[in-house]
Amino acid sequence: MRDLFSQDEEFLEDSPLQNLPIGIQSFPLLREENYLYVDKTQHLFRLMTTGKSYFLSRPRRFGKSLMISTLECIFKARKDLFKNTWILNSSEAANYDWKEYPIIRFDMGEMSKKAKGNLEDTLIQEVELIARQYQVNLLKPLIDSSDALKKLIMGLAELKKSRVVVLVDEYDKPILDNILDLKKADEIREILRSFYTIFKSQDGNIHFLMLTGVTKFTKVSIFSGLNNPEDLTLTNINSDLVGYTQIELENNFMPSIKNLAQKFNTPVQAQLDQIKSWYNGYQFSAEGVSVYNPFSVLLLFKQQSYEAHWFATGTPGFLMDLLKTEQFNLAKLNQLKVDAEALSMSDIHKMELVALLYQTGYLTIKNYDQE
Q1: pLDDT, tens only, 40-88
Q2: How many angstroms separate the CA atoms of 290 and 246, rounded?
Q3: Longest distance between any two alpha carbons in the chain, whole Å
Q4: How far is residue 295's CA from residue 22's CA, in Å, rounded to a whole number?
Q5: What pLDDT was estimated at residue 39?
Q6: Closest Cα to residue 286, out of 231, 236, 227, 245?
Q7: Rounded to the nearest 5°, which phi and psi values hold at 80?
Q8: Secondary structure class of 79 (helix, strand, coil)
């Protein structure tokens, strides 16, 4: 790591503090209001130009929604929002055509709140809203939400003479919100499986697909209906797709780091070591880089206090209930040795505790044995 001691005093007063994007998930708002943006466009460009269909699982408050919003802006050809970012400045991306695509975006977290026991109707209403925005005529009657989605994709592709971009944030939230009521969770799973299956049947009309969530349900579940999106969750090259790396932390937040050093009357390096000890504990692949939780880091710089900021935002109730039900010995967590399959859950009827703790951010990968 570079020497950060000799010029601390010189820059403590001269370096302006950034406008920190705490809780901001909208890329247009972040850029238009001049909030700090940790540039992830190189990662997104690689995904956009080397594949088509993706899934990413990460814990809450790690930047998944901001990533979805950033992709939306790229596919809307909002070049004005990307000044001084890699995707506009790099010669590698110089030939990107910035074509505008029709976009279908679903925030399943918001829809889960609105559903109030009737997810089917809420999905139909959301599809109809998107159709009105693009002036697409959905041929009635609409049999169910999957029928509505199929007609929306086909109508958009025909109207715009273009394939469609589909972005789904928190794909699993309606299930997780009802996970303690297995009958209800089963009903929701079946609705979502039929809904997401349309992405497979409409593959020819889809240019790009990205789904994010906290969990990944495998086997006889939602993903059995999808056209095998590439799972980025455990891949080394995508380990820092969200979250801040050490380099990103130092390059983007040095004024705030120096402000901490001034408050605590310590060298900058001492604060870097402290920040790393508190918040750099997440490793999402066998050989990938470790990352900082963005929410924790941003609150640290705003409040200038070392606290368990991410943990304090609330532990999922279903996780606490499961821990009690399973009577799991938490002392064993530092000695766990599992294979990669153990980090994906089989089904809502078999919520594997280790997989759930990993996917929700309470366990991380420490070492890897290829054999």
Answers
A1: 999 999 999 999 999 999 998 899 999 999 999 999 999 999 999 999 9
A2: 8
A3: 72
A4: 7
A5: 98
A6: 236
A7: -60, -20
A8: helix
For residue 224, count other CB atoms closer than 10 A to its CB: 13
Residue 121 confidence (pLDDT): 93
Cis peptide before 141 (omega within 30 of 0): yes
Per-residue HEC secondary structure of 2-25 comes to CCCCCCHHHHHCCCCCCCCCCCCC
97: helix, strand or coil: coil
Decide if pLDDT at 11 tops 50: no
pLDDT confidence of residue 9:
41
**Alpha-carbon span 164 to 153, nearest angstrom:** 7
The helix, strand and coil proportions of the chain, stated in percent and rounded to the nearest 5, come to: 50, 10, 40
pLDDT at 5 over 50: no
Average pLDDT, integer, range 115-133: 91
DSSP count for the chain of H helices, then E strands? 16, 7
Helical residues (DSSP H) of 202-293, grouped into ranges: 246-264, 268-279
Q: What are the φ and ψ backbone dihedral angles of 140, each rounded to 5 degrees?
A: -90, 155
Q: Among the listed ranges 11-20, 135-144, 288-297, which one has the minimum average pLDDT value?
A: 11-20
213 vs 201: CA distance, rounded Å:
22
Nearest to 342 by CA among 359, 317, 330, 328: 359
Q: Report pLDDT for 13.
A: 45
* Burial (CB count within 10 angstroms: exposed 0-12, middle 13-18, buried 19+), residue 367: exposed
Q: Decide the pairing of beta strands 230-231 and 53-57.
A: parallel
Q: pLDDT tier at 336 (50, 70, 90 boundaries)? A: confident
Enumerate long-range contacts of 249-254, CB under 8 Å, 24 or more apart.
Answer: 249/275, 249/292, 249/297, 252/18, 252/36, 252/38, 253/18, 253/36, 253/297, 253/301, 254/11, 254/15
Contact 179/351 with Cβ under 8 angstroms? yes
Taken in order 249, 253, 257, 260, the sign of the CA dihedral is: negative
Q: How many Å apart are CA 271 and CA 277, to the nearest integer?
A: 10
Token pair 């976009």 is found at 103
Query: Contact 274/249 with Cβ under 8 angstroms?
Result: no
